[in-house]
User: Fold this.
Amino acid sequence: MDPVVGRLTAQQHQGLYGEGFIFAMANSAGLLVSRPTLDVDGVDWMIAHAGPRGSVRSPKIEVQVKTWSTAPLSKGTVWHYRMSAKQFNALAGRALLCPDISCLLRYLPS
Assistant:
């Protein structure tokens, strides 16, 4: 099936939803958003503040986006999201020039 013309799978739709949500939120806050050209370290978006801010010029973060369609919906629930050791170690690595964060979004399929 052609991914551009054909219908998206549920997993593709869920992933695009999460990445699109983070993209829209960062852009609406006036931040710069870019995508790495290769997916070699799990980074989905690079988000930066334009221009000097404090002691760092154009501070940046690297964002990994995860979506979850089976997260509990009850109020005040703490989510326990399992990720692979490789994904965790990429986020918690040492000697990072810019912080890596993981954004977990609840996806409600229609």
